């Protein structure tokens, strides 16, 4: 946990992190750029747009599951002993999706301490303002932290059971190994009996064809393409790179072997890109072959069995799970064992 001032300082060095990631990723083979690079101001706005697209069912369907089952979810989280809950949310952002759950916990226990965790202080300030205005029973304690790199900054509140929220299929961005260690980090801050609510997108099956999945990452309006290309816009602006934005195409593919959607940027011609010298090192000259790709994101898809296995590896036992009627998305309640 860090003070606000210390945090501001830390994140001033962001451009160094961007320079380092660009250098390492773009000189690797195959070339990669990490998905956290998407979320500058423009990228965060594009992602908000994605969540409202007809093809991008994930956000809408998860919200539907919460609307249909919030009371049941919160009742089960409190358990037979009807324990008072405190909610902590990983990657809360502006907490737009959390409202339905907060309303349910207020119905159940009258008031609640809600602890959103995010790397973005601005997002958390918005979250805090929105929630104080709309949910009088909720007291918000924001924590600015990168839960993927540091121990989760959890205040243990005596006598309260913790319900950790990790929703939106955010876990899908992590490799199975990284997902396990992330959940172990969460588990390390919990006591036996505490709960985790995990939102995961589901893989293709009898109820879901691959085309549905692919469309969610390749929408007709081209918003996801713009979101993907925005990473190059960012490198041009922040590092002075000279990526030709028209020279790279958005591509989404289904990798059945690894059960993930992959996003790539495909070089449409043989082309040379320059990145000037910066704090991370000397100038780079990058030669792209025609058809060469930059791998920008993985979005893993799950089955009830793979969710259970992942949770078990981090010492969580599945207590219950809810899906939408079309079985596109799953929300799993797990108990720390
Ligand atoms: C925010 C990681 C859940 O993988 O579906 C949306 C990001 N990428 N469209 C996802 C994303 C392209 C999203 N997550």
Show the helix and strand layout:
Layout: H1 4-12, H2 14-27, E1 31-32, H3 41-51, H4 57-78, E2 85-90, H5 99-109, E3 112-118, H6 121-134, E4 138-140, E5 143-144, E6 161-166, H7 176-188, E7 195-201, H8 210-216, H9 223-239, E8 248-255, E9 260-267, E10 271-275, E11 284-288, E12 293-300, H10 304-313, E13 316-323, E14 329-336
Parallel strand pairs: 1-12, 2-3, 2-6, 3-4, 3-5, 6-7
Antiparallel strand pairs: 7-14, 8-9, 9-12, 10-11, 13-14
Helix pairs in contact: 3-9, 4-5
The structure holds N,N,N-trimethyl-histidine (AVJ).
N,N,N-trimethyl-histidine binds at residues 50, 58, 168-170, 172-173, 217, 224, 227, 297, 299.
Key structural traits:
single chain; alpha/beta; disordered N terminus; eight-stranded mixed β-sheet; binds N,N,N-trimethyl-histidine; globular; four-stranded mixed β-sheet; about 325 residues
Any overview of this molecule?
With 337 residues, the protein is an alpha/beta fold. It is 38% helix and 25% strand. It has ten helices and 14 strands. The chain has helices spanning 4-12, 14-27, 41-51, 57-78, 99-109, 121-134, 176-188, 210-216, 223-239, 304-313; strands spanning 31-32, 85-90, 112-118, 138-140, 143-144, 161-166, 195-201, 248-255, 260-267, 271-275, 284-288, 293-300, 316-323, 329-336. Strands 2, 3, 4, 5, 6, 7, 13 and 14 form an eight-stranded mixed β-sheet that branches. β6, α7 and β7 form a beta-alpha-beta unit. The protein is globular. Mean pLDDT is 93; it is low at 1-13. N,N,N-trimethyl-histidine (AVJ) binds next to α9 and β12. N,N,N-trimethyl-histidine binds at residues 50, 58, 168-170, 172-173, 217, 224, 227, 297, 299.
């Amino acid at each position: 946990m860090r003070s606000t001032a210390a945090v501001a300082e830390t994140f001033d060095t962001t451009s160094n992190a961007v320079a380092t990631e660009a250098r390492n990723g773009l000189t690797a083979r195959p070339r990669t750029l990490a998905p956290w690079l998407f979320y500058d101001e423009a990228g965060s706005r594009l992602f908000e747009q994605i969540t409202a697209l007809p093809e991008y069912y994930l956000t809408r369907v998860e919200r539907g599951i919460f609307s249909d089952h919030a009371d049941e979810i919160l009742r089960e989280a409190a358990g037979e002993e009807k324990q008072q809950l405190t909610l902590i949310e990983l990657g809360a952002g502006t907490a737009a999706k959390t409202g339905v759950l907060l309303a349910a916990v207020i119905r159940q226990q009258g008031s609640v301490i809600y602890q959103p965790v995010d790397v973005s202080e601005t997002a958390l300030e918005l979250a805090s303002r929105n929630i104080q205005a709309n949910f009088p029973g909720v007291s918000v304690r924001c924590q600015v932290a990168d839960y993927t790199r540091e121990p989760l900054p959890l205040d243990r509140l005596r006598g309260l059971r913790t319900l950790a929220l990790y929703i939106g299929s955010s876990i899908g961005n992590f490799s199975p190994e990284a997902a396990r260690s992330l959940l172990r980090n969460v588990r390390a801050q919990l006591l036996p009996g505490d709960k985790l609510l995990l939102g995961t997108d589901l893989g293709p099956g009898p109820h879901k064809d691959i085309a549905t999945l692919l469309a969610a990452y390749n929408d007709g309006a081209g918003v996801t393409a713009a979101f993907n290309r925005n990473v190059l816009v960012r490198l041009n602006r922040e590092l002075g790179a000279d990526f030709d934005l028209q020279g790279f195409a958005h591509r989404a593919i289904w990798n059945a072997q690894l059960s993930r959607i992959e996003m790539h940027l495909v070089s449409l011609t043989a082309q040379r890109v320059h990145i000037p010298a910066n704090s991370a090192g000397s100038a780079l000259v990058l030669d792209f072959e025609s058809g060469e790709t930059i791998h920008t994101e993985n979005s893993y898809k799950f089955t009830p069995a793979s969710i259970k296995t992942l949770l078990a590896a981090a010492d969580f036992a599945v207590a219950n799970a809810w899906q939408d009627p079309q079985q596109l998305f799953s929300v799993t309640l797990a108990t720390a064992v």
